[in-house]
Specification:
The protein is an all-alpha fold. It has five helices and no strands.
């Protein structure tokens, strides 16, 4: 009998394979450096919050910043608050 092996692709699998190759081709030439930096940071923070299922402490540790700094950046960069795990 042949065994059917079913694999599910998880978000972590995709994030581990994500690459910034060709990023210069995708940067909007109308953006200032500040706007491009904010867009990049927003994307990194959003991805890390998704990867850690909204757990801010774990996401902050993975990003190499303090938890309080991550909360501040979430506010400053208008990261979707729906990505955060609700506080108990």
């Amino acid at each position: 009998k042949a065994r059917l092996i079913q694999q599910v692709i998880q978000l972590d699998d995709l994030l581990d394979q994500a690459s910034l190759d060709g990023l210069a081709d995708r940067v909007d030439p109308g953006l200032t450096l500040r706007e491009a930096k904010a867009r990049f940071q927003r994307g990194c923070i959003s991805a890390m919050l998704l990867r850690h299922h909204g757990r801010v402490g774990e996401a902050a540790k993975a990003l190499g910043i303090q938890r309080t700094n991550l909360y501040r950046k979430v506010r400053q960069l208008n990261v979707s608050r729906s990505l955060l795990l609700p506080r108990k």
